[in-house]
Amino acid sequence: MPPTSNPTAPPHPLRLLVQVNLLQAWRRLAAVRHQSRWLTALILTFLGGYAGLAFLLFHKGLRFASSFPGLGAVLIERMLFLLFAFLFVLLLLSNLVISYTNLFRNRETAFLIPLPVATNTIFQWKFVESTLLASWAFLFLIAPLLLAYGLNQQVPWHFYPVTLGLIALFIVLPAAGGAWLAVLLARHLDRRAFQVAALLGAVALIAATAFWLRSDPVTDEQLETRVLVVLDRLLMRTRFALSPLLPSYWLSAGVQEWAEGALGTAVFFGLVLLSHTLFFGTLTLAGMGARFYHAASTVQSRGGLLARWTWLRVWRQRRHRRARARSPLEALADHCRWLRPDLRALLVKDIRVFWRDTTQWGQTLVLFGLLGAYILNLRHFSQQLTHPFWIALVSYLNLGACALNLATLTTRFVFPQFSLEGKRLWIVGLAPLGLPRVLLAKLALGSVLSLTITVGLMLLSCWMLMLAWSHTLVLTLTVAVMTLTLNGLAVGLGTVFPNFREDNPSKIVSGFGGTFCLVASFLYIVGSVAWLAVAAPLHSLGQVGAVRLAAGGAAFLAVSAAIGWLPLRLGLARLRAFEL
Amino acid sequence: MIELRHLVKLFGDLVAVNDLSLEIRPGEFFALLGPNAAGKTTTLKILAGLMKPTSGSARIAGYDVQTQPLEARRRLAYVPDFPFLYDKLTPREFIRFTGQLFQMTAEAIASNSETLVTRFHLDPYLDETIESLSHGTRQRVAIVSALLHAPEVFILDEPMVGLDPHHARILKDVLKERSRAGMTVLISTHQLGLAEEMADRIGIMHEGRLIALGTRDELRQQSGTAGALEQTFLSLTSQGVPQAADRPRPA
């Protein structure tokens, strides 16, 4: 029996998909009013605070830069080119990750494929959705900057809508690139091959960045007598952002030319952007359906195309055979005889799950890799730092940067641990191990892993800044205390505010508990670093009285203990009364 | 109505479906049985177009699911074991949306859904958001949406998961009625009782191959057993539980 059909009546499937998902999004938004007012207030305050603070900083920064006679305009121009170039790369990566998840790890896609919806239509919808998901943060990030730039340049009103239009054209290009890359990756790389490629790519990127940003010693004499030459050498390193082949160049040039009133040139760059957006946009929207379907089928079929290579098959077979024996991780855990066997099993499981989720260690690697690269480069910087005040300032800034990086990771990875375990409570919760011990094991694992990184980075920072051992000890102990506190806070709040309905850790984190955890972590870090910088200034420790030092340290320890321990205690109390 | 010819599906080294040829007639109720990892779900996914076969072909109502996908899918309904539903929609909205994707008119959606909604006792839930429904109710919403466009072929993977005995009975009755009216039904299940009660023919898959095919009586003859289907099944698949990594590559 053929289906009842009337081709003119129902809307096009793409329109239907947009309508249905808009309705879903609207209802999610509307559901906020049924959620905690605290959550809404907290999120709005955080967003408004960021936008306001960012605007103020950009405004002051741009005014400061423009105050350099003759140089201000060049500096601002170059900074905009650089900013958009880096944002282009970030957008490309963001689109790649989101497109991959949205196209190949998404239940809606699997639902739509067996329906009479052309695969190209499914791809088109997923492309639109991924572009919006990947780009909204970009708009949020640069809006305060563009407003500050417009005020600084005293632009006419039409600068803002034109800039918005240029940005709308621009975001399509990294989105198209990200979608193409995602389809290619899905088609040709399975999980293992992707992990290896991601690792090699990250190493190559860090090596290339380190080479490109290698130090270029400048003498005091040069700084005093040949400022323009030094500046020119510095700007040479940033010339890549001026490549006319980069879409970010077209955007930056269009925005700046419009701001300066050179409307003809601005329109030219706008048209360059428009033509490329139309070309690549059309290519992506019209011609990716079959490729997407083939890649989706390959992902479903688990074995990537690389499995066709004999050497890889043989290697995998060997791995399978080895997997039947005890793994090195289990062998290592066996040596920890002071731990109960069930606790060891839990830790081995958690480490395995972490390692096998590329997105988890990938983000950790990128965040701390960048911080490590920055700290390593301090060896050149430290030669210029002769005044103890600046050394102390950089030390405390490094402490703050390290802790802030850690806070994003504890919120992203440690906070959802209990919620994720909740899905498997039938095995972990019913085991004689007991849930409180499970929680403490997670705290211990998270703390040990974090301590290895943060203490290592802080020691490296102190070494690069050639600090005295006493200062090194103070900073290392401080970061250790902060690490324990942040882990305690994340584990505790994760238990107090669990979400057992979600499988996706990023969605668990986006709830009230996760937002609260992130904000509390940030406030704690900023407050602690500021407090310590005042109470125990490294550059004049000898001049500070012992009582003031002791009081300052005790206050820091007390606040840390309270922030780390109280949520943990609440979480443990909740677990003791927990009904499976 | 469903036609599989020399279907092969490889997952890397693993042969999930090995040279499977099968024809299911219009109006036939066919049950696909087999131990875990026998290749049943993979076969259904290939038929639903969720994955490409490594070689061979699959046709629905005469249309190749790879080369004429839209024609095949217009005549198909597929309900997996854990179907996807839009959490923030109501069942009424979801059903309408599915009908529109099948290019049904508003009148056809209204008239077809009314009967099904009443039959599956979904009236009280029609305007609740799907996220608030129980697993069984969600399963019923998925089934109603799938049946809405009166498919010629209905493929279900473990259809009774989450359904209470009352609604399981209703589903069986509806499937049998539709099957008698000409709809081809293909189910994959571990519930041997369901296959025994409902199926016109049964296929048993093992290690990616179709090792037995026929009516209940024909299977008994093939296995040399008498009595319940369970004995027949155990006898035919008693070669031992297959190890995925040890499976042979296809001929």
Features:
heterodimer, A: 580 residues, mainly alpha, globular, disordered N terminus, B: 251 residues, Rossmann fold, 2 domains, 4-stranded antiparallel beta sheet, 9 helices, 10 strands, 37% helix, disordered C terminus
Per-chain topology:
The complex is a heterodimer of chains A (580) and B (251).
Chain A: H1 13-30, H2 37-66, H3 72-104, H4 107-112, H5 119-153, H6 159-170, H7 172-188, H8 191-212, H9 220-225, H10 227-236, H11 247-259, H12 263-287, H13 289-300, H14 310-324, H15 328-335, H16 341-356, H17 358-384, H18 388-414, H19 417-422, H20 425-428, H21 435-464, H22 469-496, H23 505-509, H24 512-535, H25 546-576
Chain B: E1 2-11, E2 14-24, E3 29-33, H1 40-48, E4 55-60, E5 63-64, H2 69-74, E6 76-79, H3 91-101, H4 106-119, H5 135-147, E7 153-157, H6 165-180, E8 184-188, H7 192-198, E9 201-206, E10 209-214, H8 216-223, H9 229-236
Parallel strand pairs in B: 3-8, 3-9, 6-7, 7-8
Antiparallel strand pairs in B: 1-2, 1-4, 4-5, 9-10
Helix pairs in contact in B: 3-4, 3-5, 8-9
